[in-house]
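Subject: for your reference before the review

Hello V.,

The reviewers asked for a structural picture of the protein, and I figured it would be easier to keep everything in one thread rather than splitting it across files. Below is the amino acid sequence we used in the manuscript, unchanged from the supplementary table.
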Amino acid sequence: MFDIWYGDIPVTNLVIVFSLIVILPIQILICFKAKSMFVRFIPIMILAAVVLMWIVLSFAVVGWEGLLYLFFAIYMLFMIFVCGIGWGVWALIKYKGTKKKWILAFLAVLVVACFAWNYSFYNRKSNDNLPNLQSIAQMDEAEVNNLLSGYKRAQLLEVWGEPQYSNSSGDVWLLNGTDWLTVNYKNNSEKVVVCGIEPILFPADIKDITYTFSVYSSDNSRQLNSDEIADVIDWALSLDLLHVDFPDGKAPNEVYAGGESYTFVINNGEKEFSYLNINDYYVFVSEQWYLVENPSEPPISDEFDVVKFHDKTFKTSDLSEETLEWLNWYNELPKEELLAVSFIPPELYDLCGYPSAEDESAVQAEEE
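And here is what came back from the structure prediction:
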């Protein structure tokens, strides 16, 4: 039969199993217990009435709903066929004298065979078992990983069509207005190894991206070139995001001061998201927070280079050449030698907000 999915449930398989373990035993039981021929025909009459109803509805509406009602009518006809099998079993025992144990053994084998077929059909990596993207959108991430793991890239492309984004190791399909499905493949074999349902960070058609780097209330913005846009898309798709709900007043930007942010404005505001380092790494998009489980710096050859001093970040343009040379020397020192440093350039004191430039170790000053 054809295949219809309701969410992640294969309706055809469900109808077959229900018919064999419910309809068939009921029909056989009624045939043996009921004295009246009319009573024995009750299951078939009920199913026939339902078939007629679905057929009428299929002609009453147009489009996909009408076709769906026709499919339901075919399912009911299959159940009537199973009732006929029940009548045949009853006739073999009642009029042909076939021993009940052989009939029951046959039915048991039939049911077991159907269950085995259902299991193998549902678990084999066949195109028939791939639900559509609308059904994928209703599943949680664990279900999607369990379902798609082991499928080949060519199978997904055949069923779902071309992805919105693609590179050598993964594809991305839009599921709805807010989420996309990322699929990553095993090297060389192009088999699915891991999937994720994550928020949409980019529109389908990207014309331009404005990038803004912010640190300590200082902002610098510029347009990305085409190569940088491609690199940023690949980088964003590689991020593993976990949605986090924060109580009112407890969001990272409300609890922690300072930090760094990289904001990407796409197509002059059509879409916008921020990548933030505030005590941890987050993506903020559509008023929602996502913890980044595999953080990495955006792959941008930044015009506004930065340097770090402990947990603080400064633009190189804000520092003198002497201070930059000192920071390069200091950041290359082994950890055990840092405590021996007793001088910090005065402008670092000012930028860090330290009270004075008295001789004391850089580490001690940072701890204060």
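For the response letter, the relevant points are probably these. Residues 30 and 40 are 6 Å apart (CA to CA). Residues 5-124 form one domain.

Happy to draft the paragraph if you're swamped.

O.
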